[in-house]
Design a protein that fits this description.
Structural class of chain A: mainly alpha
Largest interface: A-B, 12 and 17 residues
Order of helices and strands of chain B: EHEHEHEHEHEHHEH
Shape of chain A: elongated
Helix content of chain A: over 70%
Largest sheet of chain A: none
Number of helices of chain B: 8
Strand order of the largest sheet of chain B: 3-2-1-4-6-5-7
Helix content of chain B: 40-55%
Distance between the termini of chain B: 24 Å
Number of domains of chain A: 1
Order of helices and strands of chain A: HHHH
Number of helices of chain A: 4
Number of strands of chain B: 7
CATH class of chain B: Alpha Beta
Strand content of chain A: under 5%
Shape of chain B: globular
Oligomer: heterodimer
Chain lengths: 131, 244
Amino acid sequence: MGQQLPLRAQIVAVIGCVFLFVFVLELVRRRRLKEEYSILWMGVSLGTAVLAAWGGLLLRITRLVGAYSANSVIFFFGLLFLLGLVLHLTVRVSGLTEQNKNLAQQLALLAGRLEERGETERGIAGQAPPA
Amino acid sequence: MKTLVIIPAYGEAPVIAGVIEEVRRAQPEADVVVVDDCSPDATGREAQRAGAAVLRLPVNLGIGGAVQTGFKYALERDYEAVVQVDGDGQHDPVELEKVLAPLERGEADMVIGSRFLRQTGYKAPFARRVGMILFSTLARLAIGRRISDTTSGFRALNRRTFAFLALNYPVDFPDAETLVLVNRAGLRLREVSVNMRPRKSGRSSTTTLRSFYYPFKQILSILVVMLREPPPRPEAIPPGVEEE
């Protein structure tokens, strides 16, 4: 049955969310994470904090979707979110793979052209240009 | 026809010079480009010493990515036809003439050198044979007529076709899927019978792990190609006109 979180658990959850928020902010500051993704993670930490602090909200959602326990609501939406995220990331990786392939091919073609030019200009076998 | 022979090569240093030599002898008019797919050995240097143009990929792209690099190279220059030949000496360059002939006569846009059109003495291992039959059946369903050798790496393409594939090419395992794609684009396929020699060096690009994944990937790819809108029939791009 749905019931309120104990106060202690609420505090721990909110502190966890604050840590996540600060950590994401720090990653962006050090340019380790793109802003577009940071917004997503900040949203997640804020949302979780709100759910933890305002216990009635989760109960209301549980009743709204017709779930039996608040726990399963959290796990269900958490899992859904992670699945969506992973799918999105594999789409991104596919795009990057394609870009990477085209770049590698273009580089090989350009290096070949440079080499040819070096040979005709100097009459000696040119080396591949330094990276 | 101004012809380019594309040889994708990975780790073929001991035999690549011999293959280039044979191609030269069989087709003295044709140019040869070796696409070195980031080989750990001296494949590129050996090919260069044998007098071929060499394109060195900075990362390993696999056979499809290497062949497509050759198509792009041919597109940049004024080639009217390309032939893909394996770098391991499996294909007899004497037969280049055979795969090029239907292109020269304008009877086909892409010619596949088939090992199975007639009995040619080539015997594939059992698992491979099962796979080949499967892809043949799939390709027949998708193309509407029989292609006996969907995994052949001995192919000749006219400019219209390689220009199309320079932009759309399945790079992982570009076999049956390519044929379906080319057929969907309204290009004419043709098979001619060729002999296959045992490879002189190297191993098949199909490893054990891949051979499990490969059939699924192929089936999926063919289905996806069929689900997509057919690509518009490519225009004949005259040599010398730069692609956008």
